[in-house]
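Narrative summary of target 7.
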Amino acid sequence: MSTETKKCPYCFEEIKAEAVKCRWCGTHLSKSPIFVDWYRDLPERKLLGVASAVARNTSISLQAWRIIFIVSILFHGLGLIAYFSIWALTPFHKEERSPFDRVLGILRKVWDTLFGKKQTNEQA
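Modeled conformation, tokenized:
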């Protein structure tokens, strides 16, 4: 093994020393995977892009995530809740807000419109 490569600690294949994700097993090698950008606008997406977003940020393949979601939907329905929860919390584009954040923004505006003016009138 040369100085420009290292072995993946999960699959033990040789990869570049600067790699943050193993090209063989897909595992993130950075110390904090929280900072990986989650978004659904990916070329491999089929329906809403949830399985492709999860697969890109985990070491489990895209096909495996699709099977996991389908099986969990068919057997107990919790997969549907998980799927739409991830959809609601994951933005479509990198620079965009998630659907959940957008709904919260609309609700804040409505709240301020309905109740914000009453508080200022009562205080005056």
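The CA atoms of residues 22 and 28 lie 7 Å apart.
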